[in-house]
């Protein structure tokens, strides 16, 4: 039940990490065929992400690789006291932990907080930047300028030690919701569905089916390209990429839970990088062109 509130669950290097529910971090290894999980065990050294008395729920997560090291990130969510959601508080905290060679995690550390307090925000990492977008703002924090779903996108540079620099507002995503299905592939951020109305903490009133993508570069998203919509509604539901397919679990209806899938275009970021490098060279931006060629 660790992910019953939509907390992050990430597959990486033959392991699955579930983290954020009650501040816990767990790990299970996949078998050789990648079809079954072994026994779940605690993945972190510390007993809780940010303290024994502060359980986290409904945050977003991502994995990033910086200088050959891999880090997990958790952003936003909310905390409460006791077992009956006493004194709930939306959070702008951002935590990170290094993935150690044996697959376990280092102690979680706090880094630069977000400029708003989102529940169910999307989190993605690409090109040395951490991106946080959308979510339900202001539900349990009157300091936010908006009390509702937002479409904001913020980015921060990831340092070599895994910490992040200051956050910068870099535009918006085309979906104003929380619990959006999202992933990065071929240098593009894909978004789909989401809870479009509700309190973000358990009571949802409507969901979406819209899909879109944009190329990530230099800590920013390019122009958003609309994609064919999901066949049905989805939001705060499991999703993931397996091979060349993207899967999203839909909203249950009449006791049946649909699963939607779509084949993704070929993943060839090198081709796009080569085209950008050639364009920079034609424009006389020799130094930037050399950097682009080196990234190949």
How would you sum up this structure, described in words?
The protein is mainly beta. The chain is 8% helix and 41% strand. It is built from two helices and 28 strands. It has helices at 269-282, 286-295; strands at residues 9-12, 15-19, 25-29, 41-42, 56-57, 60-66, 69-75, 78-81, 86-90, 94-98, 109-111, 118-119, 122-126, 129-133, 136-137, 148-149, 152-157, 168-172, 181-185, 188-192, 195-198, 204-207, 211-217, 220-221, 225-227, 239-242, 245-249, 259-263. The relative contact order is 0.10. The model has no long low-confidence stretch (mean pLDDT 81).
Total DSSP E strands: 28
Query: Total number of helical segments?
Result: 2
Order of helices and strands: EEEEEEEEEEEEEEEEEEEEEEEEEEEEHH
- Estimate the global geometry from the Cα principal axes: globular
Strand pairing plus helix content: what structural class? mainly beta
Stretches with pLDDT under 50, minimum 5 residues: none
Average predicted local confidence, pLDDT? 81
| Proportion of residues in β-strands | 35-45%
Share of residues in helices? under 10%
Record the SSE blueprint.
Blueprint: E1 9-12, E2 15-19, E3 25-29, E4 41-42, E5 56-57, E6 60-66, E7 69-75, E8 78-81, E9 86-90, E10 94-98, E11 109-111, E12 118-119, E13 122-126, E14 129-133, E15 136-137, E16 148-149, E17 152-157, E18 168-172, E19 181-185, E20 188-192, E21 195-198, E22 204-207, E23 211-217, E24 220-221, E25 225-227, E26 239-242, E27 245-249, E28 259-263, H1 269-282, H2 286-295
Antiparallel strand pairs: 1-2, 2-3, 3-4, 5-8, 6-7, 7-10, 8-9, 10-11, 12-15, 13-14, 14-17, 15-16, 17-18, 19-20, 20-23, 21-22, 23-24, 23-25, 26-27, 27-28
